[in-house]
């Protein structure tokens, strides 16, 4: 039997072992608790961070929402302001159109009277004074037309009517208009014949070339001008060149701004500084390119690039410079029906045509024409009518009526102070020529000579 004295020692060791074991267990448990507390602390920290981020997101979202609301209110205000500006611009354009029509009527009569007065002056001094008055009237006309064109272009009311047409007819009209102006200044005007057919708006393109040629005549004091066209790939390049004073390099961009004018002398025509501004706007609306080069003291060249027609070139018509039938001297002896509801314009136009040795039948209304037609002993050679007549009538109805009586080939010129594209389109669709008031006598005479020279109606009367 073992001694009893060894029992306590064994119990002590067992107790120590148990304590050590419990300590190890305790250490493991404490470690687990600590790790658990750390994990809970990290989760709590993440939870707190998430709460903070959520608050920031909510704050930023609220700020963004408020900013979007402010932007919407600002856009709505801008939209209202834009609509109001467009209404004001449209109202201004309509006012200018109405005012220009009322202004152009008496101005048209004044210019016709003045043209007759210039021809009647025998004394050189009196003739110079009359010519100065005529130039002043021309300046007023140009200003009214330019302001109306600028207003319509800026309001977006000009819609190009693209079509395919031969350039030769356009060039012929321009030649008949500008040759007298060039010769008056002692300049040579050369227009190269062309068979090219292009795609553009014929009315707008002609206005562009008119402005370029007008500038060329105004700023050229010696030498001459050239109008021509050539093919470049699928494009047509129309060139207007002059031997004028040239444009300094520092002004190459300024010339397209409103009311920018070059250096002129007292003998030069008054420049309004709107021609090239209109040219740039019209070419932008047409989608045509414009380039130019200029050398001071040498001259300038403007080039307009536009697409050629997809089809074959059209056969060019006779140009306004075609010779008149023998024995008629262009206009002399032609029988004209003239319809105009404005008494002053009717009188002035009649006197002008009388001096050109035409037989004029002046009328003020469609009713007068209806009474006249059955009494005519021969067919008229040409009808010249205003577009807007009294009681809502229009000149195109007269054209249709006369053509039913005398044949569809009867030439007609429609004159109007209404510069809208709708009127111009309607006139051209009816197969008539269009002249805008105030009528330039030289342009009228050239156009009449052109129509009478090619008219089968006139050929039958000779």
From TrEMBL:
GO terms for cellular component: plasma membrane. Its EC number is 2.7.13.3. Residues 335-452 form the Response regulatory domain. Residues 12-91 form a coiled coil. It comes from the Bacteria. It is an enzyme of class 2 (transferase). Keywords: Coiled coil, Kinase, Phosphoprotein, Transferase. It holds the Pfam family HATPase_c. Residues 98-310 form the Histidine kinase domain. The modification 4-aspartylphosphate is found at residue 386. It catalyses: ATP + protein L-histidine = ADP + protein N-phospho-L-histidine. PROSITE patterns: HIS_KIN, RESPONSE_REGULATORY. GO terms for molecular function: histidine phosphotransfer kinase activity; phosphorelay sensor kinase activity. NCBIfam families: near_NosP_CTERM. This is histidine kinase. It comes from Roseicella aquatilis.
